[in-house]
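Record 1 of the preview.
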Amino acid sequence: MKKIFFAELIACCLLTLPTSAFASSTLTGKELLDYCEVALDIHDNNLGRVQVENEFLQGTRAGFCEGYLQAIDQAHGKHCLPDHNERLANIAIVVTYLKKHTRQLNMPASSLVLKSYEYYFHC
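->
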């Protein structure tokens, strides 16, 4: 009797969880834009936008942006980036592209990064 009760209780709990708890989420352009704007602000010594988050969270967001772009670059063989291109320039390119193409912000961030490189480097 107790086993059946606990099994039903667990089943009810699992049924009430949102489906997003089981699905893997894909980073969107909107989320990447938020992270990369913070990265640009940090490299600009916060002279651009005023930051309300503590330094740890700012660093985490900036590091996520930089790591994400580096992973895309490595996965796609630097795609069409010039050899002398710097990390901060890549971030600025992606942020500028995302701000100009706001209707695409719900798309996967990985494809938007590649689109931004193709847009700015004409490749």
